[in-house]
Design a protein that fits this description.
heterodimer, A: 376 residues, alpha/beta, six-stranded mixed β-sheet, five-stranded mixed β-sheet, 15 strands, B: alpha+beta, 35% helix
């Protein structure tokens, strides 16, 4: 079940999008959703779509529209209520979409996730909107979605509360002998019972040999293990992540040292967060801690991916990495996580999501940043 | 993303099954005069990649390269940090990672000396990737191999059929666990998650409906490796009764020679003055996370004995909706439900 989305939210989004469209010289915006990247269509429609081919359309002036292959997606969009012009399409026939765009006499059409439009669908799209120039609008929508409305921040707070519950369920499941996939089953059940739509979750149990996280295997938890997870539930469309590591039994010296290093890096990254800084600035603050302690080599792509990322209708929005100069504006939501491998105790996962504010950040989680010890 | 069990203790039978599938594809490559085949996958559509290499693309995108001779290679945007896990959990040992798939593919194909390359399911490749690939490959010719791998998957072999029966039994157990609860729709979904994931499902998608006439429906689409199965049960009201009756009618029409369209039209669209029925028949290779994929398929192409198909009947009216679904093995004269015996569930 998803919470109703207020119509004022749609008005707020359309205003921001139209402002960005005007700046980019685009007079029609078309969001495309394949089966694994639905955030832009959801942003425009408010609908929890499940199909693998959907479009949402916003003209510079006039009503938005949405186009779905499946009946259930059409129903979801009608129930969400942000869009009233809703039409059915087929993979091989985008005629209704072309009719609507032609009616609006769109000269320059921006397509969000244009890079993911399948060859056959793109052929139909080009036929359907013949005469319009098609340009990518992926970055445009990423930029608009970066800053959240008050309603969106409420949703992200609710998902963060679910993260706290999910971490409790994770700790509750941990015991010597449980298999990784059985832990995930328990966490999923707890999340779904509380209304979660979905969850992104990777996990790794074991010792210093662990170099990263993956889907769960059959490995059974042993005394002395670190058990790491990125747990990312989705509620009412919005994803928030908690990154934590638990130890089975008392931690050894290496595990304690690892925790202290990662806590110092997370705290340094968070201390750098405020409106106006860049993703690069936050990443540098985290990585400098590793460099200072002689672990700088573990901040490279050989050992880690990002030092955090944005949250919203996609769980992996703006990357926090050195070299990414995206400005974190007030009301952006990001997780700061210096997750990486070090020889101290293997891969370590540790981080918190926050709302960026003018002079710092609002923490979203209640779970303390500790090395959680599970009694054996 | 996929977050079910991915075993890192790969049985030899899985490796040999993948080798046999790759060999069949190589025969097709020779027939088409191609030096290699490229198979694209993303997290929501990667069954062909899984079928050939037992690779679980749990997130992001990748392309499997099957040369006419030599090592199968997987090029992916996933980090090289997961290569050890991929090697342990798949039949593919040659891995290339990076943000630019076309560059990785150019390197893989260039080192093989390929001149003519087959693209499987070309119409479902992201257009931008295919454009970049064309530029990266220069003089190499790209030809469309159509749904060559999907067609090879249409009729499951004995091992796949055993897995589908296991999935059917798992779906039945999960639906039964959900039906025994007095709780909310979320509680029923939670019960299905716990049962299916604890049994080792690769992925699971569940929906639950409560209609005003008392009909309670729970639907599950569950995955094991590259195989998907759909089942749904409803009870408690007129909508549920009509969905179940419609499903029985559709199942009676499913046999060798029937088509997706003929099975669907075996059920009248109007069950009563207020209740309409929507019936769909879907080949199991076209099931995915959201149910039926939107492949543009000829609805009149006949189903053959040995194929597997799901029948989904949705009854809807002013009181809401109810769903009844099963997945069947098509036989010469009839079809047999996989794992969920008729009437076994409330």
């Amino acid at each position: 079940m998803t919470a109703p989305i207020p119509l004022s939210e749609g008005v707020w989004r359309h205003r921001r999008l139209r402002s960005a469209m005007a700046e980019a010289g685009i007079d029609g915006l078309l969001a495309f959703a394949p089966g694994w990247r639905r955030e832009n269509v959801r942003y425009l429609t408010g609908a929890p779509i499940a199909g693998e081919l959907a479009f949402a359309y916003l003209p510079a002036d006039g009503d938005p529209a949405a186009f779905f292959v499946g009946e259930s997606d059409e129903r979801a969009a009608r129930e969400a209520g942000l869009v009233t012009d809703i039409r059915r399409i087929r993979a091989g026939d985008l005629g209704p979409l072309g009719d609507r765009i032609a009616r609006d006499r769109v000269g320059r059409l921006g397509v969000a996730h244009s890079e993911l439009v399948p060859v056959g669908v793109r052929r139909g799209l080009e036929r359907a909107v013949a005469g319009a120039e098609i340009v990518s609008a992926t970055a445009l929508m990423d930029g608009v979605r970066l800053v959240k409305s008050p309603w969106e921040i409420e949703q992200l707070r609710a998902t963060a509360a679910l993260c706290d519950e999910a971490w409790s369920a994770f700790l509750g499941a941990l015991r010597v002998g449980i298999a990784e996939y059985e832990i995930v089953a328990e966490v999923e059940a707890a999340l779904k019972a509380r209304g979660a739509e979905d969850n992104f979750m990777i996990i790794a149990s074991g010792g210093q040999e662990v170099r990263g996280m993956t889907p769960p295997a059959e490995r059974r938890v042993q005394a002395g293990d670190l058990v790491r997870t990125e747990l990312t539930p989705q509620l009412n469309g919005y994803w928030t992540q908690i990154c934590r590591t638990a130890v089975i039994g008392p931690p050894n010296a290496g595990q304690r040292a690892s925790f202290e290093l990662f806590e110092e890096a997370a705290a340094a990254g968070l201390a750098a967060v405020r409106a106006g800084v860049t993703a690069h600035d936050v990443a540098v603050a985290e990585n400098d801690v590793f460099r200072r302690h002689g672990y700088g080599e573990y901040c490279t792509s050989q050992h880690t991916r990002v030092r955090g990322h944005g949250h919203g209708l996609h769980f992996d929005e703006v990357p926090i990495m050195e070299g990414i100069e995206t400005v974190l504006e007030a009301h952006a939501v990001v997780i700061v996580h210096p997750n990486t491998y070090t020889p101290l105790a293997g891969y370590h996962v540790h981080g918190d999501p926050v709302v960026v504010t003018a002079d710092g950040y609002e923490p979203l989680l209640a779970t303390p940043r500790e090395l959680h010890e599970v009694p054996t | 993303m996929k977050r079910g069990l991915v075993t890192t203790e790969l049985p030899e039978t899985t490796r040999s099954a993948c080798a046999a599938r790759v060999q069949r594809l190589r025969t097709r490559l020779r027939d088409a005069g191609c030096d290699a085949a490229l198979i694209y996958g993303d997290v929501s559509r990667s069954e062909d990649v899984h079928y050939l290499g037992n690779l679980c693309l749990y997130w992001n995108e990748g392309v499997l390269v099957v040369p006419a001779k030599g090592e199968v290679t997987f090029a992916t945007k996933l980090s090289p940090r997961v290569h050890p896990w991929m090697r342990a959990s798949s039949a593919v040992q040659e891995l290339r990672s990076g943000p630019n798939l076309s560059k990785l593919l150019g390197e893989a194909l260039g080192s093989d000396g390929s001149r003519r390359v087959g693209v499987v399911d070309r119409d479902w490749w992201p257009g931008a990737l295919l454009d970049d690939l064309g530029a990266a490959l220069g003089e190499m010719e790209l030809v469309d191999l159509g749904d060559a791998v999907r067609r090879d998957r249409l009729a499951p072999d004995e091992a796949e059929l055993a897995q589908l029966r296991e999935l059917g039994g798992l779906a039945a157990t999960a639906l039964l666990a959900a039906s025994e609860l007095e709780g909310t729709a979320s509680d029923r979904i939670a019960a299905i998650e716990r049962v299916t994931r604890a049994a080792g499902a690769t992925d699971v998608f569940t929906t639950a409906d409560q209609a005003a006439d008392g009909s309670v429906s729970t639907s599950v689409i569950v995955q094991l490796g590259h195989l998907w199965l759909q089942a749904a049960r409803s009870s408690g009201g007129a909508l549920a009764q009509h969905a179940a009756a419609g499903a029985a009618q559709a199942a009676a029409a499913l046999r060798d020679g029937a088509s997706l369209a003929s099975v669907a039209t075996a059920v009248p669209a109007l069950a009563s003055a207020e209740i309409t029925l929507h019936t769909a028949c879907v080949r199991h290779v076209d099931l995915g996370p959201g149910g039926a994929r939107c492949r543009a398929e000829d609805p009149d192409e006949p189903l053959r004995s040995g194929e597997v198909a799901a029948i989904v009947v949705i009854s809807s009216g002013p009181a809401g909706r109810a769903v009844h679904a099963d997945t069947y093995l098509v036989g010469n004269e009839s079809a047999a439900a996989l794992g969920v015996a008729a009437g076994a569930l409330r």
